[in-house]
Design goal:
Elements (H helix, E strand, L loop, with lengths): L6 E4 L6 E4 L3 H18 L7 H15 L9 E5 L6 E3 L4 E5 H4 L5 H16 L2 H10 L1 H11 L10 H9 L5 H17 L6 H15 L1 H8 L6 H14 L12 H17 L4
Parallel strand pairs: 3-5
Antiparallel strand pairs: 1-2, 4-5
The chain binds zinc ion (ZN).
Length: 268
């Protein structure tokens, strides 16, 4: 089937040649089609516009500097398990569990930058192919784009694949690296990235159960933090780790609204 239409293309992020099985229009359709089911899996969106708009504004600011232009969208899901996800096509999610553990806007810019790279460099599609099989993903994408048959019945496979997706260590390094580049281009202090990784690593002691769940999708090692620190140090020496985040006050205001909203949410 669609495998015959596969093409060799240049990765917009790394500049390397690679094989792409799924055309961009199908990639976008696949994300749009399956997003509602995926959101349900993580308890739906946080029902507060101020929180959603804050995260969306930070995400769009960083996404404006991505190497692949996609219809990026950002939303906060109610799940308390700390995590972030990038669906093929550009829909990006952060859970309330992760957002509520951060203290600065630059940390949020870091995590969203990381997820933007997963989309921009095609990691999301590639990892989904590894997780559930290339031919299954091609079928889901073609059905989502209305190329043949209906899309009925494919959402379960897509959601299961995305929820259990595991990025390779190389993808994680790449996402940290270019995430730093994008957030710095957007004007954020790139120390937000290693800071965020440290917050996550600290959870391995304080909350080993939650930590294990998160690690299934985005493997994190002390080596990853080290590499991020080294990169920021060598390329962005004009920034300092001890510099205060000018948006920290705004961030904490949003975080308080998030916590209050979760307390009142009927699904909690
Ligand atoms: Zn990742």
């Amino acid at each position: 089937m669609g495998l015959l239409a596969a093409g060799c293309q240049t990765n917009p992020v790394t500049g390397e040649k690679e094989l792409r099985l799924i055309p961009e229009s199908q990639e976008i359709a696949m994300g749009v089609q399956n997003a509602p089911e995926f959101e349900k899996e993580f308890e739906g969106k946080v029902p507060n516009d101020a929180v959603q708009q804050y995260v969306s504004a930070v995400g769009q600011k960083v996404a404006a500097h991505a190497d692949r232009k996609m219809p990026y969208e950002f939303a906060v899901l109610q799940s308390e398990v700390p995590n972030a996800f990038a669906l093929p096509g550009g829909k990006i999610y952060i859970t309330a569990g992760l957002l509520s553990r951060m203290s600065k806007e630059r940390q949020l810019a870091g995590v969203l930058g990381h997820e933007i790279v997963h989309v921009s460099a095609g990691h999301s599609v590639q990892s989904l192919q590894n997780q559930i099989g290339a031919s299954v993903v091609v079928e889901i994408a073609q059905r989502a784009a209305g190329q043949y048959g209906s899309a009925v019945g494919t959402a379960t496979k897509f959601v299961a694949g995305m929820a259990n997706l595991k990025y390779s260590r190389d993808d994680e390094y790449e996402a940290d690296h270019y995430g730093i580049v994008y957030m710095a281009r957007a004007g954020y202090n790139p120390w937000g990235m290693p800071e965020l990784l440290q917050v996550l690593l600290d959870m391995s002691d304080s909350e080993p159960g939650r930590w294990a769940e998160m690690m299934q999708t985005h493997p994190l090692t002390s080596k990853r933090i080290e590499k991020a620190r080294e990169f920021v140090q060598s390329e962005y020496s004009q920034f300092s780790a001890s510099e205060a985040d000018p948006q920290a006050g705004e961030f904490m205001k949003m975080r308080n609204i998030l916590v209050e909203t979760l307390k009142k949410s009927p699904s909690k």
